[in-house]
Amino acid sequence: MKTFQKTIRLKPYPRGFHLITDLVEKAFPEIMEIQAGILHVFIQHTSAGLTINENADPTVRMDFETFISDLIPENYRKFIHNYEGPDDMPAHIKSSLFGNSVQLPISHGRMNLGTWQGIYLCEFRDYGGSRNLVLTAWGN
What we know:
Elements: E1 2-10, E2 16-19, H1 21-27, E3 36-43, E4 48-54, H2 58-71, H3 88-98, E5 101-107, E6 110-111, E7 117-123, E8 131-139
Antiparallel strand pairs: 1-8, 2-7, 3-5, 3-8, 4-7, 5-6
Protein name: Secondary thiamine-phosphate synthase enzyme
Family: Belongs to the UPF0047 family.
Organism: Cecembia calidifontis
């Protein structure tokens, strides 16, 4: 059994849903040493999230942003936590809904995603800044 782990720092992304599959793959070539295993990607932040979804049509990512912003609006008057601005509390809720990690299989040294699947960074803040990802891979 082999185990690899590293933390990478992403550049700041604007609010929205961003494909980071290629970035993860390039930053973590160690997965090529695993024939069958698991890749776990964890984001060390409470106002951004990760998910796996459509990787071909960018309008899917735009629709994600539109829907989640309508579902959890910044002007919700009952929010109390607003120390870091009006987008902070909505970002925390969105992060909890989407989650802070994804797991995917590694097969023959590659992430085994479906044909139309990619890893999204879900940036829920206007100015979230750099984000850290902890990448852990294990397998044979």
